[in-house]
């Protein structure tokens, strides 16, 4: 036995390349065996592969990929904005015999492995049960969307809550439906057994079966009426026919009738006044800027038990699902820009939202110092352009430092309360642009380390732009939220463009876009320690002093420590 081994040893000494080739082949063979065992394991009964085959057999032999394709082709829905309703029309949130559901990301599920969505209790969503769904007559008839790779329970709940719906339902592991009421009968929970595509530990309905949750909406989100957004009570314009050119008398006036009529006329505003319904768009003659007390509009509609229609001098206004297209056209600059203008901010300070507003207001794409494929897919077409291309109106950047800043001719500097900005960036880092970090991240070592590293950057970023920027226009995120019309108008003028008031009013109606986190999943405790607050408060004072030194208004009062 020793002689053959000795011969082999001498052979490989003379030809070491062959020795290493043999070792490589051995390792490759071992890897293939390991992968093969993993593939076999995925096809055991009870896994996604077997479930898809069961569903296919139930639907006449179609494969899951065929069914998904049919689903995408057959369902096209509009994406409405948030819904509001007057306080006299609010419903009680009490529901009998409901099991609580969860609002968590896939990473949160990993931290709580083994717990089911129906067992999570956090007061923001309640699991109701499994319901029949029909492609011809949907159980939930609001907005819907599909994601055959990353659908999760929380993602569906979050999207429906953001748009003000009362219910969120998941079907076929990847489809999400929203609605204000359930228009179908319930069945046994065992019929909702398909795993969510984005989180295997939870169930997302079944074939023609919806796992439905009732959402605990914030007061702001809950203010709605059916599919329409309640805008409020407003004084009757002096020239009604000019402000709201289309109107009709409706017998037994109701909110539904007026909203339906204006939707058919493709108008974004439904305005109720006595027995007449007015339709139109926000204009300088009827801008919806001067909101009146709701008590001024308490006269009941003839065809309604609770909803109000008018008072002698006041109108009740709703926004329909019709999109105001006066600010939707966008294009690249026809000729190369002469100046490079930065849209600079610390991460989490609302840069993406500001880009959305600027593009709607100007009709010109914004660019970026970086490339983010997810933002490109959401409509930021300037994302792929090199930042020096000169085809975009301004360039998003989080950079700081003399060399990077001096590359720009001027800049809009976005500043946000550091307590809010740090939390927003932490959510983005661990949950995506409109997602949320998990509780495991907030309570683990990641959050303290993040604050330690990022809080000083919040201050140094602003100080660098104030020091090295050639021409700086400061915009506070909080001021932009409070007074979008005038703040955005100032930003557009700084960019060297004139914009009509009609277009700015159109932007106000679509200000949120798809870049705002909903209030469905807010932390119920303060993540900042006393030491963190002491350090951040000192940074706020430093930035406030730097702004005032340059004859600018300091930080908003809400930033300052109390």
Automatic annotation (TrEMBL):
Record's Pfam families?
A: Sulfotransfer_1 (PF00685), WSC (PF01822)
Query: TM segments?
Result: 20-41
Keywords in alphabetical order, please. Answer: Membrane, Repeat, Transmembrane, Transmembrane helix
Q: Which organism is it from?
A: Oryzias latipes (Japanese rice fish)
Start and end of every WSC domain? 124-216, 227-321
UniProt xrefs under PROSITE patterns: WSC
Which Gene3D superfamilies does the UniProt record give? P-loop containing nucleotide triphosphate hydrolases
Which family does the record claim for this protein?
Belongs to the WSCD family.
Keyword Acetylation annotated: no
UniProt protein name: WSC domain containing 2
MF terms in GO: sulfotransferase activity
What domain of life does the UniProt record list for this protein's source? Eukaryota
């Amino acid at each position: 036995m020793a002689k053959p081994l000795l011969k082999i040893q001498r052979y490989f000494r003379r030809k070491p390349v062959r020795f290493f080739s043999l070792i490589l082949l051995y390792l490759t063979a071992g890897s293939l065996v390991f992968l093969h065992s993993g593939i076999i394991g995925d096809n055991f009964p009870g896994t996604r592969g077997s479930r898809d085959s069961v569903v296919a057999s139930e639907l006449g032999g179609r494969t899951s990929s065929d069914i998904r394709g049919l689903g995408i082709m057959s369902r096209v829905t509009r994406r409405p904005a948030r819904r509001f309703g007057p306080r006299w029309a609010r419903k009680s949130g009490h529901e009998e015999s409901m099991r609580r559901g969860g609002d968590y990301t896939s990473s949160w599920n990993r931290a709580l492995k083994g717990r089911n969505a129906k067992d999570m209790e956090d007061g923001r969503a309640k699991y109701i049960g499994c319901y029949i769904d029909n492609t011809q007559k949907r159980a939930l008839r609001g907005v819907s969307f599909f994601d055959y790779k990353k659908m999760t329970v929380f993602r569906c709940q979050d999207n429906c809550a953001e748009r003000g719906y009362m219910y969120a339902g998941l079907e076929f592991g990847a489809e999400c439906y929203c609605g204000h009421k359930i228009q179908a009968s319930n069945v046994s929970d065992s019929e909702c057994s398909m795993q969510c595509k984005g989180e295997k530990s939870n169930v997302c309905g079944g074939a023609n079966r919806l796992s439905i949750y009732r959402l605990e909406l914030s007061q702001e989100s809950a203010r709605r009426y059916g599919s329409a957004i309640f805008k409020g009570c407003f004084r009757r314009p002096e020239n009604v026919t000019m402000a709201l050119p289309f109107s009709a008398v409706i017998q037994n006036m109701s909110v539904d009738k007026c909203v339906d009529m204006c939707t058919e006329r493709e108008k974004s505003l439904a305005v109720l006044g006595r027995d007449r319904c007015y339709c139109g768009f926000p204009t300088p003659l009827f801008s919806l800027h001067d909101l009146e007390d709701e008590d001024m509009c308490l006269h009941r509609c003839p065809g309604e038990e609770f909803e109000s229609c008018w008072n002698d001098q006041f109108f009740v206004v709703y926004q329909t699902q019709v999109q105001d297209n006066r600010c939707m056209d966008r294009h690249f600059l026809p000729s190369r820009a002469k100046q490079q203008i930065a849209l600079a901010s610390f991460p989490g300070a609302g840069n993406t939202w500001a880009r959305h507003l600027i593009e709607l207001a100007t009709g010109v794409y914004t660019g970026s110092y970086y490339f983010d494929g997810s933002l490109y897919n959401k409509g930021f077409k300037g994302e792929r352009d090199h930042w020096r291309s000169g085809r975009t109106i301004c360039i998003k950047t989080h950079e700081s430092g003399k060399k990077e800043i001096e590359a720009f001719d001027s800049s809009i500097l976005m500043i946000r309360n550091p307590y809010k900005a740090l939390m927003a960036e932490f959510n983005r880092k661990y949950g995506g642009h409109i997602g949320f970090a998990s509780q495991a991240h907030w309570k683990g070592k990641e959050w303290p380390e993040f604050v330690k590293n990022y809080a000083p950057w919040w201050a140094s970023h602003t100080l660098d732009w104030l020091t090295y920027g050639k021409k700086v226009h400061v915009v506070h995120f909080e001021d932009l939220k409070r007074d979008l019309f005038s703040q955005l108008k100032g930003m557009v003028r700084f960019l060297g463009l004139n914009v009509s008031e009609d277009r700015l009013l159109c932007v106000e109606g679509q200000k949120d876009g798809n870049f705002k986190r909903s209030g469905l999943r807010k932390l119920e405790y303060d993540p900042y320690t006393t030491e963190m607050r002491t350090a951040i408060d000192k940074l706020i004072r430093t930035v406030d002093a730097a702004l005032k030194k340059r004859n600018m208004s300091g930080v908003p009062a809400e930033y300052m420590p109390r």
